[in-house]
């Protein structure tokens, strides 16, 4: 498989349907999905089939045990961390092919020790004051498609 244009990292995701939705977005864009343990669900064949994730066999994905393992195996040092405490909006980022977009747990986001390492690369997706944050899968889609747009790609991996 060709090297992905984009890496999506879910740090300790808790909700299988969000991860499934993110996986669908990754397949649509040809992005690689990285899952950092612990996960709030199982990713074996039975559970994937039961959830109706019929596209999962087309997904380039990998599960790693922890954050240091991710950093050792991820083929980029350009990580963009998404947080409601971001230094700037995601539209102000200069995404490059090969970048990794990092998203935290649905209940608590990314831990401060990861955010502290991401000075200058903490991004937020603006919302009204009436909502705490967007759903994880919506946030990934918004950010991933903006990165895709910046790469100048006019179509998905199949040319459609």
TrEMBL record:
Recorded GO MF terms: identical protein binding; RNA binding; tRNA (5-carboxymethylaminomethyluridine(34)-2'-O)-methyltransferase activity; tRNA (cytidine(34)-2'-O)-methyltransferase activity
Domain tRNA/rRNA methyltransferase SpoU type: 6-145
EC number: 2.1.1.207
Binding site for S-adenosyl-L-methionine: 104, 125, 133
CDD domains reported in the protein's UniProt record: SpoU-like_TrmL
Xref: InterPro entries: Alpha/beta_knot_MTases, SpoU_MeTrfase, TrmL, tRNA_m1G_MTases_N
Catalytic activity: cytidine(34) in tRNA + S-adenosyl-L-methionine = 2'-O-methylcytidine(34) in tRNA + S-adenosyl-L-homocysteine + H(+); 5-carboxymethylaminomethyluridine(34) in tRNA(Leu) + S-adenosyl-L-methionine = 5-carboxymethylaminomethyl-2'-O-methyluridine(34) in tRNA(Leu) + S-adenosyl-L-homocysteine + H(+)
UniProt entry tagged with the keyword Methyltransferase: yes
Gene3D superfamilies membership: 3.40.1280.10
Transferase listed as a keyword: yes
Subcellular location: Cytoplasm
Any one GO cellular component localisation term in the record: cytoplasm
HAMAP family, sorted: tRNA_methyltr_TrmL (MF_01885)
Protein purpose: Could methylate the ribose at the nucleotide 34 wobble position in tRNA.
Family under the similarity heading: Belongs to the class IV-like SAM-binding methyltransferase superfamily. RNA methyltransferase TrmH family. TrmL subfamily.
Protein name per the record: Putative tRNA (cytidine(34)-2'-O)-methyltransferase
The species this protein was found in: Botrimarina hoheduenensis
């Amino acid at each position: 498989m060709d090297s992905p244009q984009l890496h999506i990292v879910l740090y300790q995701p808790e909700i299988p349907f969000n991860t499934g939705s993110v996986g669908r977005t990754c397949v649509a864009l040809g992005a690689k999905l990285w899952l950092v343990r612990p996960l709030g669900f199982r990713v074996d064949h039975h559970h994937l089939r039961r959830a109706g994730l019929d596209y999962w066999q087309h997904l380039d994905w990998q599960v790693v045990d922890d954050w240091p393992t991710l950093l050792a195996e991820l083929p980029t040092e350009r990580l963009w961390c998404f947080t409601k405490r971001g230094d700037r909006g995601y539209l102000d980022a200069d995404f490059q092919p090969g970048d990794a977009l990092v998203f935290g747990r649905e209940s608590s986001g990314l831990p401060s020790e990861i955010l502290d390492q991401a000075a200058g690369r903490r991004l937020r997706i603006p919302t009204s004051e009436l909502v705490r944050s967007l759903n994880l899968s919506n946030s990934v889609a918004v950010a991933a498609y903006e990165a895709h747009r910046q790469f100048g790609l006019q179509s998905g991996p199949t040319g459609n």
